[in-house]
Amino acid sequence: MATIRSREDQDGITIGWQAQIKRKGFPLQAKTFRTKAEAVQWATITESEMLRGVFVQRTESEQTTVKELLDRYQREVMPTLKGGYREQSRIKALQAGLGAYSLAALNSSMIAKYRDRRLSTVSEKTGRLVGPQTVKHELGLLQRALKMAVMEWGIALPAGIPTATVKKPSLPNARDRRLVGDEEERLLAECGKSRNPWLRPTVIFAIETAMRAGEILEKWELNKETGSQEKKSIGLQWSDIDLKKRTAHLPKTKNGEARTVPLSSRAVAVLESLPRSLDGRVFGTTYEGIHQSFVRACHRAGITGLRFHDLRHEATSRLFEKGFNPMEVSAITGHKTLQMLKRYTHLRAEDLAKRMG
Predict the structure, then answer these.
(1) Is residue 186 among the annotated active site residues?
(2) 175, 309, 343, 346: which is the annotated catalytic residue?
(3) Is 249 a catalytic site residue?
(4) Annotated catalytic residue within 115, 118, 281, 335
């Protein structure tokens, strides 16, 4: 049976009510409330849970905020993840929106409101509305942190993991832009006229290998906290190229796993035509330099709606059209799931018709 008693200040004035529950097989439960009715209600619910065998110790989840949980996740988990730096902006957004709540108070309604609020927020980085993919990544991070709290850190959540019941934002349709007609010929012709001598070989290499821009080129990004540019990728290195075996080894990739990319004869020809840079890079330029040159080349060629990243879509689709199966393609491109591979693949119906006979 619960004990309810008043709490007085030094002048004997009642300032609250404390409920205590002592029950065999359970740790002492005590909590203070502003009114006696609140204390009685809490004690009644808690004793009922004990009787039904569904009682969960709430003390730690009540005393731990979402901000504190994410701080611990950042300290203990992120350093073990390759590419963990990408989580920092997501943690910052989650802490701004949900950080003040205790884990015990966090529920699916709060998270759904956070989702909707984020989708109507203008990003400081891009000046556009925060995209559904960004919000989906943020909710995924929160879910991983909550699972870590329950499974590894022993923090019980009274209502379970609330993110599990929140609908994730619907992603926009995957881009389906591919090179059509004589666009490749026109594009390469203009790339060859570029002031950046690395543009044409880089574009051909991207089409032949399906490698990401950061896997091919040195890439820098602005750190908003420090205001300085930071190198995010070193690009492809000659030390990782084996022309005899026709392979390019990528020791560090976006998905955190190393992979070795087979090289077509056209890709090998590109590499053999390149000068050797003293710094070890295969392509002696940066993503930023290539991006600007690529945009200009497309404009001169009269090609609209084509991005450098679309070359990865093009290359992945061509691998399927050559007859490679999904497992073989994922080994080449580095896609970890079939769903992601599908988003980067757009097969032409006319090419499929030819194979049907």
Answers:
(1) no
(2) 309
(3) no
(4) 335
Q: Is 246 a catalytic residue?
A: no
Annotated catalytic residue: which of 254, 259, 296, 346?
A: 254
Summarize pLDDT for 97-126 with one digit per residue, the tens.
999 999 988 999 999 999 999 999 988 777
344 annotated active-site? yes
Query: pLDDT tens-digit profile of 152-184?
Result: 988 878 778 899 899 999 877 777 889 999 999
Task: Select 183-222+231-356's CATH number: 3.10.129.10, 3.40.350.10, 3.40.1190.20, 1.10.443.10.
Answer: 1.10.443.10
Based on the residue annotation, tell me whether 299 is a catalytic residue of this protein: no
Q: Which of 212, 219, 281, 318 is catalytic?
A: 212
Catalytic, out of 73, 114, 287, 344:
344
Assigned CATH for 62-165: 1.10.150
Instruction: Decide if 85 is catalytic.
Output: no
| pLDDT (tens digit per residue) in 311-351 | 999 999 899 888 888 889 988 988 877 777 776 666 666 66
Per-residue H/E/C for the chain: CCEEEEEECCCCCEEEEEEEECCCCCCCEEEEECCHHHHHHHHHHHHHHHHHCCCCCCHHHHHCEHHHHHHHHHHHCHHHCCCHHHHHHHHHHHHHHHCCCECCCCCHHHHHHHHHHHHCCECCCCCCECCHHHHHHHHHHHHHHHHHHHHCCCCCCCCCCHHHHCCCCCCCCCCCCCCCCCHHHHHHHHHHCCCCCCHHHHHHHHHHHCCCHHHHCEEEEEECCCCEEEEEEECCEHHHEECCCCEEEECCCCCCCCEEEECCHHHHHHHHHCCCCCCCECCCCEHHHHHHHHHHHHHHHCCCCCCCCHHHHHHHHHHHHCCCCHHHHHHHHCCCCHHHHHHCCCCCHHHHHHHHC
Q: pLDDT tens-digit profile of 17-43? A: 888 888 777 777 778 888 989 888 888
Per residue in 51-84, pLDDT tens? Answer: 777 666 667 788 889 999 999 999 999 888 766 6
